[in-house]
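Supplementary Text 2. Reproducibility record for the structural model of the 198-residue chain.

All settings were left at their defaults, and a single model was retained for analysis rather than an ensemble. We include the record here because the model underlies the residue-level annotations in Supplementary Table 4.
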Amino acid sequence: MRFKNWFLIASALVFLSGCAATTNFSLGKGALTKGNYKEAIKSFELALKKNPSDADTLTYLGISYYKTGEYNKAIDKLSKAEELKPKEKRVKLYLGLAYLRIGDDTKAEEELRSYTGIDSGSKVSTQVRRALVLLENEEVSPKVRDLIVANIEASLESEDEIERLKEEREKAYEYYSLGFPFPYYGYYGPPLFGFWHW
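Retained model, structure tokens:
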């Protein structure tokens, strides 16, 4: 009986510690999405303490550091994430951008080239290929480097916004496919006379 109680307590602690890491990760991701990068860093650091080898947490922590302008810390975290997930396109892209920001064009080219090998059809990939042409053919001034990074970041932000809107559309579809009709004549609540589909 005593062993059973200890086992249940130990199991509950393991479960709750996993939930805490997941909660911190979710909080960090929400803060990152809202542009609250310092809060995101705090949440991802807490999640990383619970699970130091989680590639997703390392990736988002690196992106958060990148967004705050701490490029060396971003490179450190993203490099660790790259070791765990070598084919992760966001890791490659943000590593390339961070290397560009600190002026290491050789490493930036290497990471951005590997990114285009993973993601070859997106608008971001098109911007990255254009940047690679510039980086290969001439010495790039800091102003041109900033312009390259700004163009890639703008493409990435628009692509992220499209993905977010697609997710919202899917959630709306799930909601309305449960039997709730689409808004009709100004009425946005559940159906008044039972369930039906439009």
